[in-house]
Design goal:
The chain is α+β, with helices and mostly antiparallel strands and 417 residues long. The protein has 4 helices and 21 strands. The chain starts with 7 loop residues before the first helix and ends with a strand.
Amino acid sequence: MDIKREGVAAAKRRRRIVFGVIGAAVLALVTLGLYRLEPAAPSVDRATVWLDTVKRGEMLRQVRGPGTLVPEQIRRIVLSTDGVVEKRLVLPGAIVDADTVILELSNPELEQEAQDAELALRAAEADYSDLAARLDSLLLNDQATAARIESEYRQALLEAEADDRLLAEGLIPDIEQKLSRLRADELANRNRIEAKRLEIAAESNAKQLASRQARLDQASALYDLRRRQLENLKVRPGIAGVLQDVPVEIGENVPSGTVLAVVAQPDHLKAELRIAETQARDVTVGQQASIDTRNGLIEGVVSRIDPAVREGTVTVDVSLEGALPRGARPDLSVDGTIEIERLTDVLYVGRPAYGQGNSTISLFRLVPASSTAVRVPVELGKSSVSTIEIVRGLEVGDQVILSDISQFEDYDRVRLD
């Protein structure tokens, strides 16, 4: 026979409630703990990241940029008159002297103008010679007349002086002495007039000859111009060097002002570097530079800075001071490094893959004696090609990750394996 047990069901219900409350509390505590746990630090292969150690000492500031070698002296030969290309005697790449004929051109109209100018010059020379001869003849006649009158004057003066003495001795009448003196005075006046007339004639002759000489000079200048224009139809470089370009073809009719050839001196080169606009502000004329031709280094000095910015870069000219290595030629691609300044007693580290100078970034600093790196804010100062100044955030001996690990930007720590 069954015996009724009172209170057992109620006790079971109480136990279930208690166990349920306890389980819910435990679940809530576990959930809260998991919520407060930081996400697990991601792993990074140590061999794939760039680590560097913070140092203190002298930091050399440099800027770097690509560029090319270009001749310091380039001569572009420009046609001074119209012409037709008849012959092409030298090809680009050839070594030429100052008098090497590169091209021969023709211009029949210019040849005719040169002949006309030569004839005009010969006519002007003949006119000048004829005028000079006629003026010389007239001047000689005037000089002869002046000389005759002067001679008569001196003779009359001698006669007057003799009559003065004779009159004083009472040997001649007074009227005879007065007549001789009057004749001497008249010839003295005529002598002065002839001398003045001779002076005026000489001045007049000089002015007439000067006017005719001006015409002669004008004709001579025109002839010289035409002759030079004809001579320039035989195109010469004017300097010794390498012929770089001849941008015209045989039979081509080229107008005046056309560039016929380009000649450069390959032994006198300079480097044209393209420096980023943000770095070029610290570059000044006179700074030391080093040019890498990939076959040797050449020392140089900054000689010019282009005031204009083109495509985010500034052109900087570097005059080369060292000997050129083998293979150095115009248009050769080079890399240039310019020394800006030397900073003494500063904290510095290798330049990170991201972050500019005078800015604040975050870097992963390696925790000593561990494989964990934690994110720390770092204030940067002046920058160089491969190093950058540390203003605050790091100390001497700290190791930081400089590689780009932006894929972990949501984490405050990483683990190096």
